[in-house]
Design goal:
Strands 1-2 form a two-stranded antiparallel sheet. The model has no long low-confidence stretch (mean pLDDT 82). The chain is of the alpha+beta class and 65 residues long. The chain is extended, with a radius of gyration of 16 Å.
Length: 65
Protein backbone atom coordinates (compact mmCIF):
# COMPACT_ATOMS: atom_id res chain seq x y z
CA UNK A 1 0.00 0.00 0.00
CA UNK A 2 1.60 3.31 -1.06
CA UNK A 3 0.77 5.21 2.15
CA UNK A 4 3.12 8.12 1.48
CA UNK A 5 1.57 8.72 -1.95
CA UNK A 6 -2.00 8.41 -0.58
CA UNK A 7 -1.23 11.03 2.07
CA UNK A 8 0.57 13.43 -0.27
CA UNK A 9 -0.90 16.85 -1.08
CA UNK A 10 -0.15 16.54 -4.84
CA UNK A 11 -2.09 13.26 -4.97
CA UNK A 12 -5.04 14.84 -3.13
CA UNK A 13 -4.94 17.81 -5.51
CA UNK A 14 -5.05 15.45 -8.52
CA UNK A 15 -8.02 13.58 -7.03
CA UNK A 16 -9.90 16.84 -6.37
CA UNK A 17 -9.62 17.70 -10.07
CA UNK A 18 -11.61 14.55 -10.91
CA UNK A 19 -14.60 15.42 -8.68
CA UNK A 20 -17.69 16.96 -10.24
CA UNK A 21 -20.23 18.61 -7.93
CA UNK A 22 -22.83 18.46 -10.72
CA UNK A 23 -22.97 14.73 -11.40
CA UNK A 24 -21.81 11.39 -10.13
CA UNK A 25 -18.94 9.62 -11.83
CA UNK A 26 -19.63 6.40 -13.70
CA UNK A 27 -18.25 3.28 -12.10
CA UNK A 28 -18.35 -0.42 -12.76
CA UNK A 29 -16.94 -3.42 -10.91
CA UNK A 30 -15.30 -4.55 -14.16
CA UNK A 31 -13.37 -1.27 -14.52
CA UNK A 32 -12.53 -0.75 -10.85
CA UNK A 33 -8.85 -0.36 -10.06
CA UNK A 34 -9.46 -1.42 -6.46
CA UNK A 35 -8.44 -4.70 -4.96
CA UNK A 36 -10.68 -7.70 -5.44
CA UNK A 37 -12.86 -8.31 -2.42
CA UNK A 38 -14.40 -11.46 -1.10
CA UNK A 39 -17.79 -12.37 -2.50
CA UNK A 40 -19.26 -12.69 1.01
CA UNK A 41 -19.41 -8.91 1.60
CA UNK A 42 -22.07 -6.54 0.28
CA UNK A 43 -21.99 -2.78 0.69
CA UNK A 44 -24.87 -0.44 -0.17
CA UNK A 45 -24.84 3.38 -0.04
CA UNK A 46 -27.88 5.55 -0.78
CA UNK A 47 -27.96 9.36 -1.00
CA UNK A 48 -31.17 11.26 -1.74
CA UNK A 49 -31.74 14.65 -3.38
CA UNK A 50 -31.52 16.37 0.03
CA UNK A 51 -28.09 14.78 0.60
CA UNK A 52 -29.37 12.47 3.33
CA UNK A 53 -27.22 9.36 3.28
CA UNK A 54 -27.31 5.87 4.69
CA UNK A 55 -25.00 2.92 4.13
CA UNK A 56 -24.84 -0.72 5.11
CA UNK A 57 -22.10 -3.33 4.95
CA UNK A 58 -23.00 -6.95 5.49
CA UNK A 59 -20.51 -9.83 5.59
CA UNK A 60 -21.30 -13.53 5.69
CA UNK A 61 -18.59 -15.54 7.38
CA UNK A 62 -17.81 -18.78 5.64
CA UNK A 63 -18.08 -21.64 8.10
CA UNK A 64 -16.09 -24.84 8.04
CA UNK A 65 -17.86 -28.12 7.40
Amino acid sequence: MPIDRLKSKPYAADLRKTISLDKAARSSPSTSSGRTRATETTHISVVDASRNAVSMTYTLEQGTA
